[in-house]
């Protein structure tokens, strides 16, 4: 038997191959876009790489996780041994998550709600990717559609293509601090709309729709023993870097930050190509910036916003300052000269 499009023993042609719809949607991956930007980095360059494109603050010491979580992991070996010897956990675990963890999370989230959550209200997943997969799989049905924000996280589109769910985009209004355009939502929604995705605090806009506290999911020990001052410290660092990001972007002539970020870890900035000499679009800028300055920024095209940039400020302050200074130098070097 031949692989791929070869012929079988009876002369029949095999049609093994990928689903074209899924193959196309896979190219929209945010990680794939960042990988292409990273490929322009000169690994032997004289300066360290500054990642202002991805949303993973864990590599910076100022965003190190709580010692309670680290201690819980270190002591996990004893807990695993005890669990195995108890013979209580040899069967399949509940697909929604173990009860003690769901009880602790329900209790924690209820602190900021006018009502009390039950463990049955909690569904634990291995991160946002699995959560999106579960939700889309549950909601998908023939003829159904989903309303997604633009700009937004592209994995939704990829998963919807896999499940055959029609995607309809509503806009986040720049002039109103990235608020939802309710008129566009009303125009898009119909009897086949099964869900509308709302991200708060906003990614990638950095906006906050309400003052409701952003809850963490975590295991019972972390929720019980992590003190408020740990979270307050992280929030203070984010507030500091958000302020720095907003102020330093004002110094860069070819980009504009329409709104100061209020939450999340990101900010969207508008690219003014008319001020640049040899930059074709946002993707071209990010590739050249990575090559020349070893600074990684996400092109807005990956989020449905061409000629915008997404910058993360979940970075230690000194690295953020250095990265934005390099971005400024890059823009000055590529600035269109007045004739």
From TrEMBL:
State the Gene Ontology BP annotations: L-tyrosine catabolic process
Q: Which residues form the Aminotransferase class I/classII large domain?
A: 69-216, 228-327
Show the CDD domains listed in the entry.
AAT_like
Please indicate which superkingdom the organism of origin belongs to.
Eukaryota
Q: Name one GO molecular function term.
A: pyridoxal phosphate binding
- Please report the name of this protein according to its UniProt entry: Aminotransferase class I/classII large domain-containing protein
Species of origin reads Cocos nucifera (Coconut palm)
